[in-house]
Amino acid sequence: MRTSSNPAFRRLPQQGRGGYAGFGSQAGMMGGAAAYADQQATGAEFGTRAQGERALTHDDVVIKTAITAGTALVAGILTAWSGLFVLALPAIIVGFIVSLIVIFKQSSNPALVLLYSASMGVALGALTGALEFSGTNFQGIGFQAIVGTAGVFVGMLIVYKTGAVKVTPKFTKWLMGASIGVVILMVVNLLASFFTTGGLGLRDGSPLAYLFSIVCIGVAAFSLMLDFDMADRAVKEGAPAKFAWYIAFGLMTTLVWLYIEILRLLSYLRSE
């Protein structure tokens, strides 16, 4: 029926006619929508649950997500406080490598998930700390970005739970197109910046940059709804309890993107 814009959830294994959580096999790696196959799930789509193993619950997802987010938060605060801003690049590289391992192996290994969270926490903490120490205009920007990210997360969760916006195949197709479009623009802007100052003007603090950041925040925010939907279906289909770590990882990747975009927009506002 639906697939997430999150690459972690898009890599979930498919089996037979039903894909992830009973989703049709037409759902591809780049997203898209497929008709929901109204069939009895076996749980194998999420990893076979061993005999006697407890099934996934919403509490599992909440607890594991809180642990991963908390790990990133603590790592980020410690990095910013210590002034070890040079750790940004190494942490990004480690986080990227670990994320590839988790995604392509569909791993629910808590050590890998927490390593990813800690690495990205260090990276974001270093970037935020460097920004705050670059001038008085940016002091406190990290706290604002954290509050903004948490606010968007809670807000989108409320929107999802109340059904104010339905996660439908049409909604998913629209969001897939928006996500792909945003990524393409980012890549083109990066390439153009090698030849012209400011590239396409999407990241230079201009009015166009403001608009682009707002669009990115919107796309990331609505991506959370698809992630919530995927997690909800994993619970309903009886995934093994350990799968909560993989769901937490998927949510964490979206939160990292959301935080970066909010931080960037705040930096534009503070620069005026």
Describe the structure.
The chain crosses the membrane at residues 61-78, 84-104, 111-131, 143-162, 174-196, 208-231, 243-260. Keywords: Membrane, Transmembrane, Transmembrane helix. InterPro entries: BaxI_1-like (IPR010539). This protein is mostly helical and 272 residues long. It has one domain (7-271). Helices cover 65% and strands 0% of the residues. The protein contains eight helices and no strands. Helix 2 packs across helix 8 (243-271), helix 4 runs parallel beside helix 8 (243-271) and helix 6 crosses helix 7 (207-236). It is globular. Mean pLDDT is 81; it is low at 10-44.
Which secondary structure elements does this structure contain, and how are they paired or packed?
Elements: H1 7-10, H2 58-82, H3 88-105, H4 110-132, H5 141-162, H6 169-193, H7 207-236, H8 243-271
Helix pairs in contact: 2-4, 2-8, 3-4, 4-8, 5-7, 5-8, 6-7, 7-8
Total strand count, please?
0
Fraction in beta strands = under 5%
Global geometry: globular
What portion of residues is helical? Answer: 55-70%
Element order: H for helix, E for strand: HHHHHHHH
Transmembrane segments: 61-78, 84-104, 111-131, 143-162, 174-196, 208-231, 243-260
Keywords: Membrane, Transmembrane, Transmembrane helix
InterPro entries: BaxI_1-like (IPR010539)
Pfam family, one: BaxI_1
